[in-house]
Amino acid sequence: MKCRVCRQRAVIQVKRHHANFCKDHFIEHIHRQVAKTIDEYKMFDAADRLLLGVSGGKDSLALWNILNELGYAVDGVYLHLGIGDYSSESLNLSTNFAEARGLKLQVSDLPAEFGFSVPEAAAASRRAPCSACGLSKRYILNQIADELSYDVLVMGHNLDDEAATLFSNVLRWNAEYLARQRPVLPATNEGFARKVKPLIRVAERETAAYAVLQGIDYEVDECPMAAGNTINRYKEWLNRLEEDSPGVKAGFLFGFLERGVEHFPNADRPTLDSCRFCGQPTTSDVCAFCRLQAVTLRA
Amino acid sequence: MKCRVCRQRAVIQVKRHHANFCKDHFIEHIHRQVAKTIDEYKMFDAADRLLLGVSGGKDSLALWNILNELGYAVDGVYLHLGIGDYSSESLNLSTNFAEARGLKLQVSDLPAEFGFSVPEAAAASRRAPCSACGLSKRYILNQIADELSYDVLVMGHNLDDEAATLFSNVLRWNAEYLARQRPVLPATNEGFARKVKPLIRVAERETAAYAVLQGIDYEVDECPMAAGNTINRYKEWLNRLEEDSPGVKAGFLFGFLERGVEHFPNADRPTLDSCRFCGQPTTSDVCAFCRLQAVTLRA
Question: What homologous superfamily is domain B32-272 in, according to CATH?
Answer without folding.
Answer: HUPs (3.40.50.620)
